[in-house]
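Re: that chain you flagged

S.,

Sorry for the slow reply, it's been a week of failed gels. I finally had a moment to sit down with the sequence you sent. For the record, here it is as I used it:
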Amino acid sequence: MIHSLRGPAKKLVAYIGQDEMYDERPLFQALVDQARTQGCAGATVSSGTMGFGPTSRDVTKHALRMSTDLPLMVTVIDELQRITALAEVWSSMVKSGLITLEDCSVVYYATPEE
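Prediction finished late last night. Pasting the structure tokens below so you have them in one place:
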């Protein structure tokens, strides 16, 4: 579903590991599919070069161990109502990670001419 988006909006970001799974498929794919199912304007998956999370913070045991499960960020920007509903669903899907919600302003959003 294509809809217009301009002005005040919300940005939802899930920070997850690339190896995380949901229903026997990659979690990042499941999150994007859920955003599509709920009619969001779009979703982007970005890959981090390096990172660590709660399971890699014990530097006394493992020196400076960095995770081999590289970080991914799944981002969706849309209107408040859609993002609020999506955040609730994502929260039940993400078992290990971080989900943030931020205010943003859409300056330009265009879809291809049909």
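What I noticed first: The CA atoms of residues 44 and 106 lie 15 Å apart.

Talk soon,
D.
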